Amino acid sequence: MSVTRRTAANELLDSALKNFYGAAEEMGLPEKLMTLLSHSERRLEVSVPVEMDDGSVQVFKGFRIQHSTALGPAKGGIRFHPDVDADGCEALSMLMTWKCSLAGVPYGGGKGGISCDPLTLSKKEKERLARTYAARIAPIVGTWQDVPAPDVGTGEQEMVWFTDTLAKLRGQIEPGIFTGKPPLYWGSQGRTEATGRGVATCGLELLKALGVKPEDVRVAIQGFGNVGSYTAKTLVEAGAKIVAISDVTGTYYSPKGIDIDKAFAQIQSHPKRMLECFAEDGCEKLGLEDVLLVDCDMLFPCALEGVLNNENANKVKAKYIVEGANGPITPDADKILADKGVIIVPDFLANSGGVIGSYFEWVQNLQGFFWAEEEHNSRLMHVMKGNFKRVWDYAQTKNVDMRRAAFMAAIQRVADVEDLRGIFL
């Protein structure tokens, strides 16, 4: 079956479709289900007019894509980034479908965002942007309809603005409509760290399966935002050495190991949460891409999609890669890395801690009863370890790589439900 149903498919969407078709064909999935699951249920594009601080008006493009609601409400983040477009959101919403399925949570897949550069916006401009966007997507989001969360360029504050906007429009608070909120405002203790902790846990479980001790491993982490920073903290707590970290200001490298507490303090104190000017004895500043290519044992790409491609994959020195970001490795790079013998833990397994944490927050919002952080973390680690073992064992049994094993397991659950429901509306 052809994987190009558009004449100008974005590379990430191409990648998502190739991975889907490859796994579905190997599974022997009926063609009617392949056709159904290769299309999104809904693609919404909205204009987002914002009055800027200087009195001018700018109109931004916003999107919300719902790939599947077979297993439950659509679930997926909202990102504020210049590269946001409809096809990219569709690809990420498809990946969210598989991620939620594999994680065992009762959600489908969704994704959205606004094409903008949040670093150029004042707080008031960002608030007006967030609130207008929330109002424009209001007809298709809801506690049992579509439950968005933070993503690149958004966080707790934006989730509060989204939730408050819809509360005012609808005349009642619906705390379960958005997740990733602060504990002060219907959020969940432990949710902020959930994705990073989950990514690190998958890395540690991989080492355990291979019989490698964490203290014998040198780690490089691309991206030091919410995911990357908590991945680093969790790995250091387990004994691993972090030799390289990065953000948009560059790569910071030290073969002796980086003091992650200092790096964390740096982003906490920086007005834009960046590593800019971060330095310590023995720490060398390198270029943006260098973090992917430094001498290390384990690489965690925790920033954006497509960073490992056919131009740089053959230069990667890491033996293990754990995908903290969504789609950081292109299909071409996947093959190059496989030929080099690199073991890859796929994104929708590795970074599912965020959606599992979101599920926990949603459950608590529905109950109006909140757990202690220890209970949240204990439940999260239990689920992440179980999911890793399921995919690892499946891969060993079927003699396929972990990405293919994860896709097969995830697709099968959604396909079974779609087949059970039948095609209607």
Overall shape: globular
What's the number of helices? 13
Q: Element order, helices and strands?
A: HHEEEHEHEHHEHEEHEEEHEHHHH
What gap, in angstroms, lies between the N and C termini? 25 Å
Total beta strand runs: 12
Low-confidence stretches: 1-9
- Mean of residue pLDDT values: 93
> SS-based structural class?
alpha/beta
Binned strand content = 15-25%
Rounded to the nearest angstrom, the radius of gyration is 21 Å
Q: What kind of sheet is the major sheet?
A: 7 strands, mixed
Strand order of the largest sheet: 9-8-7-6-10-11-12
What does this structure look like?
The structure is a single chain. With 425 residues, this protein is α/β, with parallel strands linked by helices. Helix content is 44%, strand content 17%. It is built from 13 helices and twelve strands.
